Structure prediction request, 355 residues.
Amino acid sequence: MRRITRIATVGLASAALALSATACGGKKSSDSPSSSSSETKAAAGAAIAYDIGGRGDQSFNDAAFAGLEKAKSELKITTAEAEPTDGEGEADKVQRLTELARKGNNPVIGVGFAYAPAIKKVAPKFPNTTFGIIDDTSVTGKNIANLVFNEEQGSYLAGVAAAKVSKTGTVGFIGGVEVPLIKKFEAGFTQGVKDTNPNAKVLSAYLTQPPDFGGFSKPDLGKAAANGQMDAGGADVVYAAAGLAGSGAIEAASAKGKWAIGVDSDQYNQAGLSKYKEHILTSVTKDVSDSVYNLIKSVKDGKPENGEIRYGLDKDGVGLAASNPEYKKMAEVLAAVEKAKADIIAKKITVKTAP
Prediction:
């Protein structure tokens, strides 16, 4: 189904006014509709622009939404959301961010590295608005916060768990799109597997290649790739870092009675995946939710975050979920994961960021 751009704003007008007073030093800007660089006088609240797949992906975007919802509830602010469109280009993202900023939202957060070129263009036009971008450090500025994670560290732990539970000695990795960010997931996972069982085999597959980013949004591709790894390759554990497409891999693993490893959110607890949850061993989590909340709170407090803000194992910014009761019973696996975590934090293990 083709998505249409959606902007929904909810909350209290009084909170909006309070937020505008504290935004980036509290400087008010002119309200000139004829100027593309103008900012409105009253902040509408905090806004996020979703990545490919949009809200409802049970993964990356939903984690960002959870942070927005937490901010709305605890900070008593208004919020706005904007969805992507199928096959959109940079101009669409520029327009989306511009519209959110013009309406006075502060901060405006781009969910995903794909927003980097657009934020580079839009942020200078709204100097009193904080722009957040998740998973990117290529674009910087005084009013830009780069919210990034050590995905390779969490993926290493997933590799340890996968190697420990695998009975065939073969596990699979599925990346949504072959880009440097997703290669970090692959690198950490493969290293964790090999450090745990040097004789293990890791099958790797990517669903699409840039500029085709459909690999993050098409569950059928994830399902087909997982089936291929299990049927032809003999994999009995499949880890997918593929956004919405990863749900297809989880479905495939469940149908064959194999283990799936989720990503970004604790997918065992995602309602949309509840019928497959018994086969979700664990999930590599990224604290996208708190990163979004923390940025919003910093703006509301009048001390907006900017520059690189990194979340790793040492700050529980990434990790491995333990929601599945069956996983909790695996004492040997849990011990191996905890040891690996401690060794990474102590810098006894350096996790690769590229295969």
